Fold:
Amino acid sequence: MMSEKAKIVSPSRRAFIGGALSVGGGLLLPTFLPGLPLIQTAQAQDALTGSLFKPNAFIRVPSQGAIILVMSHAEMGQGIYTGLAMLLAEELEVGLDQVQVEAAPADPAYIDKGASEEETGGSSSTRHCWVSLREAGAAARMMLIAAAAQRWGVEAAGCKAHEGRVTHQATGQSLSYGALADLASHQPVPEKITLKSPADFTLIGTSPRRVDTKAKTNGSARFGIDAQIPDMKVGRIMACPVKGGHLTGYNKQAALAVPGVVEVVTLPDAIAVIGDHMWAAIKGLEMASPEWDYGKNSTTSTEDIIADMKKASDQSGVTAVKRGNVQNALRNAHTRVNAVYELPFLAHAALEPINTTLHIRPDGADVWVGTQVPGRARQEVADATGLLLEKVFIHNHLIGGGFGRRLDSNSIGQAARFAKQVSYPVKLIWTREEDITQDQFRPYYYDRVSAGLTNNGAISGWHHRTTGSSVSARWSPSDMDHGLDPDAVEGAAETPYTMPDQLVEFVRHEPDALTTLWWRGVGPTHNVFVVESMIDELAHKAGQDPLALRKKLAAHQPRAIKLLDEVAKQSGWGKTLPDGHGMGVALHYSFETWAATVVEVKVEKDGQIHILSAHSAVDCGPVVFPDGVVSQIQGGLIFGFTMALYNEITLKNGRVEQSNFHNYRMMRLSEAPDIHVHILPNADAKIGGIGEVGTVAAAPALANALFAATGKRLRRIPFAKQFGKDAV
Amino acid sequence: MKFDLKVNGTLHTVDVTGDMPVLWILRDILHLTGTKYGCGVAQCGACTVHVDGQPVRSCLLTVQSAAGRDITTIEAINQTEAGARVQQAWLDEEVIQCGYCQSGQIMTATALLQKTPHPSDAEIDDAMAGNICRCGTYVRIRKAIHKAASHDV
Structure:
């Protein structure tokens, strides 16, 4: 267990030099002091002297004080600060109690090589950093050892690094990393980096205390919304409630008459009232009574969008996979099911509402915000202000829940367009209502599936046509492949099962009245619900045990078979259950991780659903932080259950009908089942992601359990209202 | 209008309108940002503080009704015996993910233990029903409350 000394410090003002292994040295660089105008601060503090060993963008070893590990990826609850710190510290040979972590600034040095930009998403951080950060730590260790060997005039091979010190084993001489910082900064970067053997890991594979949690128990952790800048004002933003509309008028005098209101600023499609504090801004905006021209989407309802989507789904789409002869196989099938599955628009509803604090000056800008994409955030502000990119500094913060929302930086661009109209630092906050109604939403999906089984229980034809918005087309157009959005078919094109005759198509249909975005679990959260529901439907129709059928269809996937066996054993699959109880299973491979999940439910006569327990067996290859894996599966399942039971975003007259937690309902503690996570270690496999895996499994495992309990097949999310239970 | 607010044992005089919620006084005037804004309508519990020892949603608690009463926030809850135990149990059970709701969770759990030193699962369900955790840390919150109640921290 690590000590509580490790704590988070805010980002440094230092502009990092690109190139992972460039050697720095010389001045002790300042860490960001909250509340000071940063550019001036940095210059003032550059006068401080001291030695600094900065072997690369991720590690700074000062001659005195804690070693700083710079976090290239955003901490939004998934525990990545701890995971990344473990990778660096393992090879650097320091304890987590000897380090502080800080958020990286927006800088190309922190580009995620797998994503080709600065990005935290797609359950990819650990996968993409698994080798590179260990190498960064190892390079630093080798340079520290070389420095010590030089100081003592001995062979490096006779020196050993351990817990932040280098020791010459023959003589027992020993120096701390801090004492070696100056000399280490003059060592050549090693050309060949030797990583530790996994057998020698002392940190990776253990569950130390997370580096970010202590500050989160006592109110000292700083999220973006907690930024405090001298002379800062606070503003509330309201955008046109209908996408595409614009502001036509407002009562400026009434707003300014509210005590504490300072200023009203506008954009073509939004208004912000700025005050000495948020209460003045909230009341000021109410008094401003903005008026809108709602524009062309002012009559659109969800029903219209779904009807259009349904019509679009009558036509063939872009082919993702085509194998064998699907029509023949379906015709010859012994058991056949045709079904339509529908998944709703979803808001992210992270508990920290959208907010951005900015100080925009003629010569530069500072931005205090929590973002999953610091590079995009920086570009947004540069575009909005006309400032050069290098004049924009992003101070990334802890994020109070991301779930994909902070992968878009539109709110940061909007805030910059407001903030450039004022001279002082300003914190601009979206109220909860704004956060939900102006979210960018998980797409609605309308999926038609026809599938069959032979009389031997093999799949005889599988035709899956999914219709929906393409997030990739807007957000990452280079990912599009001749009109195919790989995300729209992820989890559908490749399934765990043998499908000799398979056709998977994507019909792109973009609703005008809202914007779509990534949402936890992305493509797999959509498609695994469809695929795992259909497999279950086929099993029941053919009179086969759903778990046994999966084992048969995935017989060529030994990792899947192990997990199904484990989860069957742990959950007591097949045992006799009381009336109204049922168990459902879901199997999937996503983010390079295999998982098998069994959920047990009880449904009362009045339709009340109780999720009694969940068991997940998980094989994510090598495990860096086992307790982190467990907590992500637990939390991911709750996140997915919440969506599956209760959540949908609907439009009426172009406006989002949900606005706060009273009508966009979250699961509560009393509803949360016991969740048991069984990790099956697999050190030789490729490392997999974990942050979204639980969420992917939740809806299909729950739907299948509800069918087992009641005989009612849930082909549409959310479920609770289909049992007569309103979300409210 | 001027109001005297006693927060964490210190008296502050604030000059604001009487309808201003304590939440925004804590965050924007006293700069005690551990108390979080989540919904503004007492639906999420992120803004929970103690008023005379009772858990209260500070987003709907006006300054005029709070003046003269003892307000405790997450920044000082470690000074109560139950609060310190709850914080330690939260760390020992590694409850926290994003952490944004956890100030409120800890404040509510502390009030529960101050009133009910050994709560049953049903009492925990009841007391914690108003606190949303979007990361889904509920399983561990329950464990941590039992742990704090057992004094095994």
Summary: DSSP finds six helices and five strands in chain B. Strands of chain B lie at 2-7, 10-15, 48-51, 54-57, 70-72.
